[in-house]
Design brief:
This protein has 117 residues and is an all-alpha fold. The protein is built from six helices and no strands.
């Protein structure tokens, strides 16, 4: 069975105020729509693939309307974060050339290899 999932929208232009912020400036966190929803953005160890796809689709919906999307994505890419950040899964970031520091899933490893070739 193939699990379908939507791709993040990389075409969204950054807001000028986000481009000027240093990556260690975390004021954007106060505006984040995900506040208090950690279980939606970070799966449990041993999470089944079908459950992960559903969880990440729900997280993507929250991110799509979040005013902190662009700085959140930049933070996750620069910090090589695990979990779902800025509308991107670990696989999405690895495919874009920003793999997580600790790669735990085979799908992330494959996305990293594909981005490197």
């Amino acid at each position: 069975m193939t699990l379908a999932r939507s791709q993040p929208d990389f075409s969204m232009p950054p807001r000028p105020e986000d481009a000027e912020r240093p990556l260690d400036d975390r004021e954007w966190i106060a505006d984040a729509a995900c506040t208090g929803r950690t279980n939606l953005f970070f799966g449990l160890a041993g999470e089944r693939p079908e459950r992960r796809v559903r969880r990440e689709e729900s997280a993507r919906q929250v991110c799509d309307s979040c005013p902190a999307l662009v700085p959140c994505r930049a933070f996750a890419r620069a910090g090589r974060e695990n979990g779902f950040w800025g509308g991107e899964s670990e696989e999405d970031r690895a495919a874009a050339g920003y793999p997580a520091r600790s790669i735990s899933r085979r799908s992330v490893q494959l996305a990293r290899r594909a981005a490197a070739s």
